[in-house]
Amino acid sequence: MDVHFLDQDVGKSGCDPERITSTSGTFHHAARLAKMFSDFGPLTGHMVTHIILMNACAPLIALACNRIWPANQPKSRMPVRNLLFPAMIVQLALLWAWHAPPALDAAMRSHALHLLMQASLFLGALWFWSAIFLIGGHRRWRAILALLITSKIFCLLGILFVFAPRTLYPAVLSGHHAAHLSGITVADQQLAGLLMLTACPATYVLAGIVIATLWFNEISSDTAASPVPVQEARA
């Protein structure tokens, strides 16, 4: 596995304009893909938007700008250990809060609330991934732990969607297609859950594997570079 691209990005200051430009194109493709999947149901299209924003755009932008505090103000930068787990909690709390039936019903009926939901979830994910990529050295275990916890709790929502015997949102209608009274069906809900269960290992678990590989490579390099004690050399 080639992980040198991530190793080169982590710890640098500033933004990469080329990556930001490519990520802006991802937003355009996200809108087109979400519109395509919305034919399967409002919750499926809604979930595709979530996945692209939180699992693709957010980590890409975090890689392009992996310093969330100004590089010329090092004294104002909070320790990484104070950023990661609050970011994880905020991201998970936003995800579950917005998918409570009353909140999702309101968001699907209002363009403004729907935009607020997507923006808050994206910003929460951006904070989380930025904190992940700030982790380095012997503290990489914190990033791996946060990724695994996030993956598990994200997948719980997907499992709930897939195995629920009835729709969890019987009152929710798509505010964007209200004229057609397109509601959330069990099949729509199950497909949305399957998409979540596919996206979790493809992002969080994979990122954990890459970071673990970087960590082990660093340990191997440090061990190989460490000087041999004189007594052992004589022996």
From TrEMBL:
Signal peptide: none annotated. The keyword Transmembrane helix applies. InterPro entries: Caa3_assmbl_CtaG-rel. It comes from the Bacteria. Keywords: Cell membrane, Membrane, Transmembrane, Transmembrane helix. GO terms for cellular component: plasma membrane. Pfam families: Caa3_CtaG. The keyword Transmembrane applies. It is found in: Cell membrane. The chain crosses the membrane at residues 47-69, 81-100, 112-136, 143-164, 191-216. Its main location: membrane. It is a multi-pass membrane protein. This is Cytochrome C oxidase assembly protein. It comes from Phyllobacterium salinisoli.
